[in-house]
Each structure stands twice: as structure tokens, then as C-alpha cells.
Amino acid sequence: MEQDNIEQYILTHIDEEGELLRNLNRDAHVNLLRPRMISGHLQGRLLKMFCRIVQPKYILEIGTYTAYATLCLAEGAADNAEIHTIEVNDELEDFIMKHLHKSKLKDKIHLHIGDAIQIIPTIDCIFDLVFIDANKRHYCEYYDLIFDKVRSGGLIIADNTLWDGKVLETPHPTDKQTIGIQAFNDMLEKDNRVEKVILPIRDGLTLIWKK
Predict the structure, then answer these.
(1) Of 63, 121, 131, 168, whose CB neighbour count within 10 A is largest?
(2) How confident is the model at residue 148, as a pLDDT?
(3) In CATH, what is the architecture of 2-210?
(4) Which keywords does UniProt give here (predicted)?
(5) Where are the domains of the chain?
(6) pLDDT at residue 1 tops 70
(7) 202 has a pLDDT exceeding 90
């Protein structure tokens, strides 16, 4: 209960998420199967703040879902920023576009529908910021694909890296998502090309700075 009170205190003392994101959140909870996958108010404000600090010109998001996080990244990025966001589930395209079309930031955002592993090599950009929030089985593959496409001094953010605490457990052999997150965390620990820290926010948020 105390943790819930702390979270509520935080939410009442940070910037509001705004009407568009509130409506998107409500729409997702009514119409989508797994609305808790949305980044949400606190994480959304964090993503905006990271963009304010880093001032990225080119941003890549792997895993659009509802475009909640996408819009938060767009809020914090400069007017001339370019955001490429990839969503594998084509059934979400109508939901995504419905809300993007309502945003004055939509011209910054380029939506790609399809498999990120196939799409990433086709995007001709060196990215300043990458947000990974897609299939946990493939986090290591995403990381390997984007690493050379991130500038030195660029920021990579990976979501769900504590995975409801399952990273502390021995996963069942069929639990490929937990296995994928554990493998990603173990790989990062040994990667001396980067500096990294895990923030225990929501489901775990790892910040990775490329040397």
C-alpha cells in the first residue's frame, strides 16, 4: 500500500501527461488485450526528459504498440527530429494512426509495420537515441543490429529488464521471454563498449550509454 501511495505522490508532483495521452490510455484499456504494456504516465515523462537532455535528431523505437511512448519521445525531441518506430503487429496500425493523426507532432514520426529484425537494416540513419520495448526473446538480436547504427555518446534505453522479478528465477525452458531478458542483461554486463545502469522503475528500465 505504501508503494502505491508513493507512486500516486510521484504522479501528482510531475508534469501531466496531457489530454491526448490520457485519451489514448483510456482507449487502450477499453479496446486492447494487454493495456498494461503501455509505457504510462511516469515512464512517458521520463522518456520525454531523456529527449530533453540528449536532444536527439534521430530516434529509433523498437515496439510501437499504441504509440504512447512514441508521442512522449516526440514531445521531448527537437522540432527537426526524426522518429522511426517499428511495430510487428499490423492489427495495431489503425489504433496507432488514429492517435498519431490527432497529434501536432505527427510529422516527426515515421511508422514501420513489420519485423524489426528485417526493417532496422533498411533505415539509413545513425541514431542518437534508441528505445527497445518489443519481443523480449529478441533483445540481444535488436541490440546487435542497432549497435553500429548508434553514434558514440548515444543513448540506448531498454524496457522490461527486470521482467516482474523473473530475472531472479530459473525460468522454465519454454519461457523464452524470461530467458531472452536474462541473456540480454548478462550480455550487457560484459559489454565494455558501453556504460549501463538499471533503474528499478515499473518493470525495469536500463540506460545504456555508448562510449
Answers:
(1) 131
(2) 98
(3) 3-Layer(aba) Sandwich (3.40)
(4) Methyltransferase, S-adenosyl-L-methionine, Transferase
(5) 2-210
(6) no
(7) no
